Amino acid sequence: MNPLLKATGLQTYFFKDKKILRAVDEVDLQIHAGETVALVGESGCGKTTLAFSIFRLLPPAGKIMGGSIEFRGNNLLALSEKQMVAVRGREMGLIFQDPSSALNPVMRVGEQIAEVIRQHFRENHRAAKQQALTLMEKVQLPNVEMIYDSYPHQLSGGLRQRVLIATALAGRPALLVADEPTSALDVSIQSQILALLKQLKAELQLSLLLITHDLGVVAHMADRVAVMYAGKIVEEAPTPALFTSPLHPYTAALLNAIPPISFSPLGGQKEFKPLLGAVPDLTNLPSGCTFHPRCPLRMDECSQKIPTVFSPAANRIVRCFKYGS
Predict the structure, then answer these.
(1) pTM above 0.85, yes or no
(2) What are the sequence ranges of the domains in the chain?
(3) Architecture per CATH, 5-91+173-323
């Protein structure tokens, strides 16, 4: 079966002060119909830039330098901006990371949902409002008539996030991309939003790309996981396999860095090992494997050559010389 979304060799760079920041570097990623794929990694690894590249919503300093992005077999990079406007929202929906900044502060929230419906389906004002109210009920907003006429600042973070989800669903997309959808919320609201996303995905038969740094969330939500480090996918695997037998040292370090007092996808007791160091400056990457300065298993060749993609087992890929032939 052909994937719904397929990125191949994708390269997205930022240009500033004569420096080149390689935010997305030769990324291959596929999402099939009905599948939930989690994209994980520390802040600064390029996850959000990958999402914005898919939607072609990069800031002026960013540019897609190579590769392709196919959605339903069509290369999104070959579309005009007018054609891409018809894809955004209608074919693919995006839930932004921060609902406070993603919503228009001077526009009533219900109108922001209805506007998407009017744009993509040419509905009149009354019909668009009714459909928006129905969507607001679907995302479990209370008192929808009152909230429809509210401004973003009048709502709590959890309610604003539900409004964003309704807005992303207003075009009836096949693919929903959720960029850290719970990072700005407290723990109790986080669980409600995740449960809602899981329910909506099943009801509406959506595909979901979930961008997160929370591996506990990944364990509950994802069918497959792609681990991103310094602009590259360094490991990809079905979720159970990734948690029980991580291949890349970075993946293992992320799992070991989950505090024992928090939810552990591995279950039971485990040793807590903080991940030392930081993601490298993407304008001045280390030679060879970009993880080698932090890797406890590094070998001489790790600092000298860039590892290619190896497939040591079915449905698994990894960028690490440990698995090279």
Answers:
(1) yes
(2) 5-91+173-323
(3) 3-Layer(aba) Sandwich (3.40)
